[in-house]
Amino acid sequence: MNSDETIVAVSSAVGSAARMIVRTSGPAALTLLADLVRDPVPADGGSAFPSHLAFSGVFCPAWVYVFRSPASYSGEDLVEYHLPGNPVLVEMFVSHLRGRHDLQIRAAEPGEFTARAYFNGRMDLTQAEGVAAVVAAQSEQQEQAGRRLMAGELARRIREPADLILATLALVEVGIDFSDEDVTFLPIDDLLSRIDQCRNMLSSLLSDSARFKPLGYEPTLILVGRPNAGKSTLLNALAGYERAVASATAGTTRDALTARIALERGYVRVVDVAGLEEGLTVVGDDIKSQMTRRALDEIARADRVILVVPVDDAALPVDAGRVADLVVRTKCDTVPAVAADASQRLASPPGPIPTVAVSALTGQGMDALRRRLDEQAFGRDEAATLTLNARHEAAILAADQALVQVRDLVEAGGAVELVAAELWEVLAQTGRVLGQVTPDEILDEVFSRFCIGK
Ligand code: GDP
User: Fold this and answer.
1) What is the pLDDT of residues 80-118, one digit of tens each?
2) Which part of the chain is the G domain (predicted)?
């Protein structure tokens, strides 16, 4: 990153909008603005503009927002132009700005405003990732998780163990300095308990976030049921188009079919597997056994299992090797409403598995089913929690691994210098979560996932 250059980008979404935003950031941002303000022309190249100034006029009916370094998003001088939402006009405006080659103006790369904010210490790496997560969010939940990252929640929580390690390290190092004297600054038991405390903090960080899948992850719901239960028809009804081939001949669904379905809080993958016949015994290598094997494999990997049973079917459903999370009684148009209701209670699977009665034909119960699926996929628990990405998880696990080594070392009566070295490693790993000691390749990888203008 060359911070001598001033970057410019359209920061609003692509497509028509009432207003479009052009952002400039860098040493020449105020000079560019001064250039545009004709009346009066500031003699000082823009340094007279106070921070957090908003005014209208300039170039066309635009609102201009001035944020001076360091109190801006990027930490640099930053000027935002809120223009009428006309792409042609905005394009002209951007080329006009970029025309000042003498000022080293260039188009911003994806995520560059945020990258500058990170390098200028305006936010740590987890917060920068939060910005990307909010922009990329496809569900309310993902958006909230991104916001929590952005607000620095992960940073706060990783600092707890990091501070404890730092304090411990200080005591251990004092011990090294005074090793000739007969004083103990940190008894072994105390040291071990601090290590365990730290490990507990890290593991609760991991388990709190485990309830949520990584951003961009689409939960898989699998439809299980005997042939002719109405699975394909249900998939089609959910998808709103003919995704699966439904037919009256049992066993028509010959392979796993998947549809990406939008529910209230996000997208899910609904899979309709083939091959689940009565016995479900996997014998030999014939096509049928292979299909059963594949089906069982799919079921084992799915996030939720949806058992599909016709409303008039009192028989026990297929054994999918996994307890169903939701039962859908299909074809409820084929029995009178009251009976359909009663047969819900007669639902064959044991235990309190939530059940919905639907008719893919009439649409009855389909809204309720969608709500249930949403609940299954995204959970009922709205409680705020964290979303860790693979990078965070790897660093947290590495920190924990280093803690395990410190523990082993301490228990084996290892030299105090080695203990200190291992504690430094723990600190380095926790620092990595925040991007304090992050190699350039990882930073590039983080920021390249952004869109332009952020
Ligand atoms: P699959 O083998 O589980 O995928 O079952 P299909 O979706 O192919 O459906 C089997 C048969 O049941 C077909 O003849 C469908 O038209 C019929 N069917 C499916 N859903 C309904 C429904 O809601 N109402 C009625 N009346 N028939 C249905």
Assistant:
1) 998 888 888 888 888 888 888 788 898 888 888 888 888
2) 222-313
Q: How far is the CA of 248 from the centre of ligand 1 (A)?
A: 7
Domain with 164 in it: what CATH number? 1.20.120.430
Note whether 224 and 358 are same-domain residues: yes
Torsions phi, psi for 44 (to 5 deg): -100, 20
| Mutational test site, ligand 1, from 222, 231, 233, 328, max ligand atoms within 8 Å of CB | 233
Task: Note whether 29 and 158 are same-domain residues.
Answer: no
Q: Which domain holds residue 356?
A: 220-378
Tell me the binding residues: 23, 80, 122, 228-233, 247-253, 454
- Predicted local confidence at residue 196, as pLDDT: 92
Which residue has a Cα nearest atom 2 of ligand 1?
228
Q: What is the position in ligand 1's atom list of the atom closest to the CA of 251?
A: 2
- Of 291, 292, 253, 257, nearest to 272 by C-alpha is 257
ipTM over 0.90: yes
Alpha carbon dihedral 170, 176, 180, 185, in 10-degree steps, equals 30
Contact 23, 8 (CB under 8 A): yes
How does pLDDT run across 317-342, given as a tens digit for each residue?
A: 666 677 788 889 999 888 876 555 54
Choose one of 224, 226, 228, 258 to mutate for the ligand 1 pocket test, by most ligand atoms within 8 angstroms of C-beta. Answer: 228
What gap in Å lies between CA 422 and CA 428, rounded to an integer?
A: 10
